[in-house]
Design a protein that fits this description.
Layout: H1 2-45, H2 50-71, H3 78-99, H4 110-135, H5 140-161, H6 168-189
Helix pairs in contact: 1-2, 1-3, 1-4, 2-3, 2-5, 4-5, 4-6, 5-6
């Protein structure tokens, strides 16, 4: 009877441990979504220029790579979580700084509209990943792989906006990468691997 009790306690502990790690991962992905929403709002209200949004996307790319590396083994350690939070805090400060630096973008320009659309797609993809983590359809390891894809898309957006203008060809290239990432999210959420 003692062995059965110990086994049940071990199994229950494993579920609590997995749930705690999933909650940590969901929190980090939620923060990604929030920061992307702030960038999009800045573009829409003109408090961010396309060039500034591009620099912020490069910062977001770094955070996504850090998350991907942390989730590579399926676990998020306290040190990794602290590093991710520190990086996200730095991006948050950069967003605040760029929104209040006096530079103004034209939210109605074609370039800004393209960047707004790309950032909106990031928000959507981050939300899909977050929902997959919360529902248990995505493991931490799968989430890490998807975060690497998000980092790639953010990097493409940053590179396109580096000169302050996102052209139609650049956006087409970004959209192709985002479509590929969208398929990866769907496939990972609908495979038979669960948390």
């Amino acid at each position: 009877m003692k062995n059965v009790s110990r086994l049940l306690l071990a199994v229950a502990g494993a579920f609590v441990f997995a749930g705690a790690h999933a909650a940590d991962t969901a929190t980090e992905v939620q923060r990604d979504t929030n920061q992307q929403e702030r960038i999009e709002q800045g573009l829409q209200n003109g408090s961010l220029t396309t060039k500034e949004a591009g620099r912020l996307e490069q910062d977001e790319s770094r955070v996504d790579r850090t998350e991907a590396n942390a989730e590579r083994n399926g676990n998020l350690s306290a040190g990794e979580k602290a590093r991710i939070q520190r990086d996200q805090n730095q991006v948050s400060q950069a967003i605040n700084r760029d929104e209040t630096n006096g530079a103004h973008g034209n939210p109605d320009s074609a370039s800004s509209k393209r960047m707004q659309a790309d950032v909106a797609r990031n928000i959507n993809q981050d939300q899909r990943i977050e929902n997959g983590v919360k529902s248990g359809a995505l493991t931490n390891r799968e989430t890490g792989k998807l975060e690497r894809g998000q980092a790639h898309d953010d990097h493409l957006e940053a590179r396109a906006a580096r000169n302050g203008h996102v052209g139609t060809g650049e956006q087409r290239h970004i959209q192709m990468a985002e479509n590929h990432q969208s398929n990866k999210i769907w496939n990972k959420k609908h495979n038979d691997v669960v948390r």
